[in-house]
Design goal:
Chain A: Residues 448-476 are annotated as: Disordered. Chain A: Keywords: Membrane, Transmembrane, Transmembrane helix. Chain A: Residues 135-417 form the NADH:quinone oxidoreductase/Mrp antiporter transmembrane domain. The complex is a heterodimer of chains A (648) and B (99). With 648 residues, chain A is mainly α. Chain A has 24 helices and 2 strands. Chain A has helices at 2-21, 30-53, 85-108, 115-134, 138-156, 163-194, 199-205, 211-229, 236-240, 246-255, 258-267, 269-273, 276-299, 303-323, 329-356, 374-388, 394-408, 411-440, 479-500, 504-509, 524-547, 560-566, 571-616, 624-647, and strands at residues 62-72, 75-83. In chain A, helix 1 (2-21) runs antiparallel to helix 4, helix 8 runs parallel beside helix 13 (276-299) and helix 15 (329-356) packs antiparallel against helix 16. Mean pLDDT of chain A is 88; it is low at 454-466. Chain B is mostly helical and 99 residues long. Classes of the chains: A mainly alpha (648), B mainly alpha (99). The A-B interface holds A 617, 620-625, 628-629, 632 and B 18, 21-22, 25, 30, 91-92, 94-99.
């Protein structure tokens, strides 16, 4: 069984290698190879899962030592895998949702001539993410981490002929780099403190080190998680990452990439348990991000960007839960899995809508689409109900648990976190209802040509300027696209209930992820009712604004907050002023210094030597007699000097 | 006769030779002046040899003669070649070796 673990990673990696090196002869079959290898990885995962279920809870952890990667004296880096309940959960999510997205992409990318390459990148993405969750030590995890960063760069910038996509890919890569620095520093601290970076020794002995060291490691890991999971302050790449093809967004937001940060925090739980300051930082980041993302999601008219805001917000919930310690770890992972289902479903639904609407992304150009795309409407609707936490659906169970755990943190902190989480739930209901109403209900706003927007055209560059307006013919997508959506809709509906049945999910994770029951200051029923009330308020507010009144086809100017949220709450302006400008000044200063001082010294020396030789070359005039004069003169001086020395 | 007088003579000859090298333009005359300087040096060497009572100076004078003979062969060859190509034996005309 152990040997199968390596194959989990190897299958998609092989797919990536074959597809990317295979050349044009694979253009016709490439997508099938990619999908088959992703599916093979899923089947392997399922086999391992069945095998794992057959064993006792205590010895379900499998490990496989493949080879010594870098053995240098005391520095021992191994390629070793570890498959326990936590990695198993991720493996199934990554390969399962990943395979569905592969299937969907067959239809979605049908007319793209670089489809083979696209599938190669998708496989690379899966392989890197599997390496990340299966690694047995932080260094190998780091390798997977970087692989994910590379694959996301390639996929976000897949339509690189668009400058915006190329820029977005670069932005994602650079922002991720900032986080990666955190991870590498954390690994360095681990090595100097513990002499190793394998999971078990580090996590077992972290209690014996000083709290300061644990806090340092924890904060660095948090920085890493912020980068990959798009948490404040490293969140700015996520919205721009929508430039990639829609299946990529689904993959990034549901199965891979953004979940990596949550995985890292939960996996390193012991470190955070030993460092309360780092934990506080984690919950703060989570709470801020969940509100930040939710507010941004409310203002976006681009359907994918609204969903991106929602991802940021939902990951914020997970990070919040992961920062709560043993009362929250399991729920963070549970929400991650249910979110994987409904967010993948929502993104694939959004892709399906765009597919039928000439790639229009502006929701103000949608409206009344439910008649034309019933399957998309149904699956998107179920995903919608799940994400807002409609009682009985997946999101309800996982999100409600997180809110309860936030209250159970205790003290003022608990009330603040719980309140933020509740507020987030209300805003989530608001913006998701808004998306739903603007897309599938109301007038059919796409029938009329878009009127040029009078104000701030730079804010929402949604509709590209076209010469003639072509009225779209909304239609249902092909079966390769609808079937994955249907499967994901099933997950969105039932996963949460299944996981919560007798706390099955918590008990499944318990041997690896410590769990204890939180005790909220108010009864669980009260929290649940409050969640439902928040949900109803959100839905009601959205209906008042977007359901009862017709939606203007051109975005109104909006309040100050709306305008700020349309600009992602000024995140880019902030980065521009705080980071980019000083950076530019610094580089300009350095260039000036380089020109004036460094180059000045070098050029000055050269000019001095040049001038001197220009003057001294005049001595050499070609007249033999003048050379003879200097020889005689020299000889005379020598004789005179000798005589003088003798006299003295 | 006092051998020191030979030294005066040598110095005089050397000076005449040096002036010739520096002041004359004709390559043949310059060449002859060089010979004059060499012979002045020889005379000085022989005079010193006599003054100090050992033969080293005289031996070196023989060496000088051999070198001078060789130099004449090479030098005259060069001068003849230059004269053939430039139709002039002026040393100042052959001033191409400059920047």
């Amino acid at each position: 069984m152990e040997t199968l673990i390596g194959l989990l990673v190897a299958a998609p990696l092989l797919g990536a290698a074959v597809l990317l090196c295979g050349g044009r002869r694979l253009d016709r079959t490439g997508h099938w190879i990619g999908t088959a290898l992703a599916a093979a990885s899923f089947v392997l995962g399922a086999v391992l899962f069945a095998d794992m279920l057959g064993r006792e809870a205590e010895d379900r952890t499998l490990s496989q030592h493949v080879f010594s990667w870098i053995p240098v004296g005391g520095f021992q880096a191994d390629v070793a895998f570890r498959l326990d309940q936590l990695s198993m959960t991720f493996v199934l999510l990554i390969t399962g949702v990943g395979t569905l997205i592969h299937v969907y992409s067959i239809g979605y990318m049908e007319h793209d001539e670089r489809r083979r390459r696209f599938f190669g990148y998708l496989n690379l993405f899966l392989a890197a993410m599997l390496l990340l969750v299966l690694a047995d030590n932080y260094l190998l995890l780091y390798a997977g981490w970087e692989g994910v960063g590379l694959a996301s760069y390639l996929l976000i910038g897949f339509w690189q002929h668009k400058p915006s996509a190329a820029t977005a890919a670069k932005k994602a890569f650079i922002v991720n780099r900032v986080g990666d620095i955190g991870l590498s520093i954390a690994i360095m601290i681990m090595f100097t403190t513990f002499g190793t970076f394998a999971f078990s020794p580090v996590l077992e002995s972290v209690g014996e080190t000083s709290e300061g060291t644990a806090t340092a490691i924890g904060l660095m890991l948090l920085l890493a998680a912020c980068g990959k999971s798009a948490q404040v302050p490293l969140q700015s790449w996520l919205g721009d990452a929508m430039e990639g093809p829609t299946p990529v967004s689904a993959l990034i937001h549901a199965a891979t990439m953004v979940t990596a940060g949550v995985y890292l925090i939960v996996r390193s739980g012991a470190i955070f348990d030993a460092a309360p300051a780092a934990q506080t930082a984690v919950v703060t980041v989570g709470a801020v991000t969940l509100l930040f993302g939710a507010i941004v999601g409310c203002a976006k008219d681009d359907i994918k960007k609204a969903l991106a805001g929602s991802t940021m917000s939902q990951i914020g919930y997970m990070v919040l839960a992961a920062g709560l310690g043993p009362i929250g770890y399991a729920f963070a992972i549970m929400h991650l899995v249910t979110h994987g289902f409904f967010k993948a479903g929502l993104f694939l639904g959004a892709g399906s809508v765009m597919h039928g609407m000439n790639d229009e992304v502006d929701m103000r150009r949608y409206g009344g689409l439910r008649k034309y795309m019933p399957i998309t409407f149904a699956t998107f609707g179920l995903g919608y109900l799940a994400i807002i936490g409609f009682p009985g659906l997946s999101g309800f169970f996982s999100k409600d648990k997180i809110i309860e755990a936030a209250f159970a943190k205790g003290g003022t902190e608990g009330w603040i976190l719980g309140g933020a989480a509740l507020l987030g739930a209300a805003i989530t209901a608001f913006y998701m209802t808004r998306v739903m109403l603007m897309t599938f209900f109301g007038e059919e706003r796409w029938r009329n040509a878009p009127t040029p927007s009078p104000k701030e055209p730079s804010v929402e560059p949604a509709a590209e300027t076209r010469g003639e307006y072509e009225v779209p013919h909304p239609h249902e997508s092909p079966r390769s696209m609808t079937i994955p959506m249907i499967v994901l809709a099933f997950g969105s509906v039932f996963a949460g209930g299944l996981f919560s049945w007798g706390e099955a999910f918590v008990h499944w994770l318990e041997p690896v992820v410590p769990f204890e029951h939180g005790h909220p200051p108010v009864s669980a029923l009260t929290v649940t009712s409050a969640t439902v009330v928040a949900l109803l308020i959100g839905v009601g507010a959205a209906w008042l604004q977007y359901g009862r009144k017709p939606v203007p086809a051109v975005a109104p100017r909006g309040s100050l907050l709306t305008r700020a949220a349309r600009r992602d709450l000024l995140q880019d302006d902030f980065n521009h002023v705080v980071l980019v400008k000083p950076g530019e000044y610094l580089t300009r200063g350095l260039v000036y210094l380089d020109h004036k001082v460094v180059d000045g010294a070098v050029n000055g020396t050269a000019a001095a030597v040049g001038g001197l030789s220009g003057r001294s070359r005049r001595i050499q005039n070609g007249y033999a007699r003048s050379y003879a004069v200097s020889m005689f003169g020299g000889a005379a001086i020598l004789v005179a000097a000798t005589l003088l020395m003798r006299a003295v | 006769m006092n051998p020191v007088n030979y030294l005066y003579l040598a110095a005089l000859l050397f000076t005449i030779g040096a002036s010739g090298v520096l002041l004359r333009r004709n390559a043949i005359v310059v060449f002859m002046s060089v010979e004059l300087m060499l012979n002045a040096a020889n005379l000085a060497l022989v005079a010193f040899s006599r003054l100090h009572g050992n033969l080293d100076g005289q031996i070196i004078a023989f060496f000088t003669m051999v070198v001078a003979a060789a130099e004449v062969v090479v030098g005259l060859a060069i001068i003849v070649t230059i004269f053939r190509s430039r139709h002039s034996a002026s040393v100042d005309d052959a001033s191409l070796m400059k920047l």
